[in-house]
Amino acid sequence: MSSTRPDDEVASSFLDYLRTALDIPDLLYLDPPERILGSYDTAIYAFRLANAPAGWSEPLILRILRGETDAKRARFEATVQSSVADQGYPAPRPLHLCEDKSVLGGAFIVMERVPGRVMLQIFSPMLFRMSRLMAESQARLHDVDPAPVLRALDTVEIDPKQYALDSSINEGAAEIDRAHLEDLRPAMNWLLQHRPPDPERPVICHGDFHPINILVDKGAVSGVIDWANIALADPAYDVGATIAIFSHGPVDLPSFAASLVDAVRNRIIRRFRKRYEELRPLDPDLVDYFEALRSVGFLIEAGVNIQSQRGAIPPTDKPTAFADPRQLRRISERIEDLTGVSTTLPST
Questions:
Q1: Residue 124 is part of a domain; what is its CATH number?
Q2: Which phi and psi angles does 287 have, rounded to 5°?
Q3: Cα gap 335→292, rounded to integer Å
Q4: In the chain, which residues have pLDDT < 70?
Q5: Residue 104 lies in a domain
Q6: What is the rounded distance in angstroms from the CA atom of residue 95 to the CA atom of residue 88?
Q7: Which of 95, 112, 129 finishes a domain?
Q8: Helix axis angle, 284-310 relative to 165-178, nearest 10°?
């Protein structure tokens, strides 16, 4: 998680910061920060303020990025998210950005809290509407005009190329070198050799679009959250990533239910892709490439964690969602299906 500070210390430091930033010495919590469902890259808190100015008195979210994350990444994330919300897309609107990591242990964003519950509810009627809602809300994002986003990024002195495809590939290659994951080099070389050309008309891609990051309220999508992996890229970048994440994301169910879960996931993915393609065309080869890119990233994340546990590299404060041997085996098999390249991780 992003911040290793105790929650009470986060709450105290955050309130002190807000009193100064908002110039309201008697600012108080109506509801103090409470850690809620977060990601492996962030610590997320829900809170409410008393004696707050307009726009700050509603339910809010504090999102703290991992300490080693470049603070400019937070600026990029907040700018794109704000621009998308300005165009009517259901993204939480950022209210405040702090790039000073010393305040809470990492750069952080304060944003609106959108209503609703996460879409992924296994034993719920939502399961039968998930494919359609995912496809329609993702296609809707890809229809958002990127021009205002690019103008906003230019205003805050961010070059979007810093967070484009090459950046993702180069970061993965650097992690393979750093963690001595020699058996993943052939897969990375395949990705480099088959890198697609940049699209003529890139779209805004969420990069982490899956049911845990989609909120629903009264049967409709009320918000899309966790914009840390935004990119301006081909729509296939987003679709391929969604397929990879939904196929291999961990599910907290007994192992005997794994086959049933896999069957349900595969059905949802097929229906999701079919519905998306009814709304927007897709190049299937590009979808496969970007699914492979994200899947290799899963193995890199798992490999870094393994090497850290073995003492081969310094400890990492980022946990991994990919630790189950069966899960890793399925990811490796899928990468070989897509690329023809076999992959192996160090043993623990």
A1: 3.90.1200.10
A2: -60, -45
A3: 6
A4: 1-4, 37-40, 121-127, 251-258, 348
A5: yes
A6: 16
A7: 112
A8: 30
